[in-house]
C-alpha cells in the first residue's frame, strides 16, 4: 500500500499534517500580510485566521494549485476585508511623519526608545529600503499592491496570482504593468539615493539619527541599488529594489521593532489608528 503524504492526511482532516504543510510557508504568509496591513499583530491575527479557515475548508481544496497558493488566496481575501474601508496612504506620508517627529526639535523619543530598548531595534539602510518599499506600495490601489507583492516579491507565477486574486491572466498582467509604473514614478520623484532631485533623504537622515557610527557611504556602496550604472533604466532600478526587498523578512529583520514603531506613526498620521501621538516615555512594542 502506498504511504500517505501529509497532504493526503490533511485532506482527511488531520490537523497535525495540515500544520506541517502550513509551516512550510507560514513565515512568507505573515510577512506578506504585514506588508499589506503594516501592523505585526494584525498580520499575525490574519495568518491565524487563514490557517483556521483553510483547515475548515480543506475538503474544498481541489488541488488545481499548490496548497500554498490556495492558502494565500484565502489570506488575501481576509486582508481585503480587513482593509476594505481604509484609504490608501498618501504619497507624502513619510514627510508628514518626519514633520511630526521633528516638532520643536524633537526627533521622537518614541522611536529612540524602540531603537535603544529592543534587540531588534537596529537601523540598517538595506532594511530601511525594504520598509520604504512597503510604505510606497501602500500609496497605490490595494489590488495593484497585492498583485505587485505576489508576483515581484513573493515570486508567484502570473497564473497563480490570477488564482489568488480571482482575475484572468491578461487582467493580472494589466494590473501589474500599472502597479510597476506607479511605483517607478513615485520612487523617481522621491528617492534621493538614485535621483539627486528626489525629495526623500530619509535613509541618510535616519542613519545619522540611529546609527551614527556606521559609515553611511560604505553601507550604501554595498547596495546594488546605488551601484547601478548611470544609464540604468527606471525599470531596472525598481527591479533592484525588489531584489533587495525579497532578501528581507520584515518580521525577522535586525530592525523589525524600529520599523514597527515607524509603521505605527505612519498609521497614526493616516488616521488608521484613533490614538494620540505616542508618549515618548512609554514603550508601545509588545514582547516578541
How does this structure look, described?
- With 288 residues, the chain is mainly α.
- It folds into two domains: 1-85, Orthogonal Bundle (Rna Polymerase Sigma Factor, Chain: A); 88-288, no CATH class.
- The chain is 61% helix and 0% strand.
- Helix 7 (109-116) runs antiparallel to helix 15 (256-269), helix 9 packs across helix 11 (169-190) and helix 11 packs across helix 14.
- The chain is globular and about 60 Å long.
- It starts with 5 loop residues before the first helix and ends in a 19-residue tail after the last helix.
- Keywords: DNA-binding, Sigma factor, Transcription, Transcription regulation.
What structural class do helix, strand and pairing data support? mainly alpha
Which sheet architecture does the biggest sheet show? none
Roughly what fraction of the amino acids lie in strands? Answer: under 5%
User: Which oligomeric form is depicted?
Assistant: single chain
Q: List low-pLDDT spans.
A: 283-288
Extended strand count: 0
Which bin fits the share of residues in helices? 55-70%
Count of domains: 2
Q: How widely separated are the two ends?
A: 45 Å
Whole-number mean pLDDT: 87
Figure out the total of helices.
Answer: 15
The outline comes out as globular
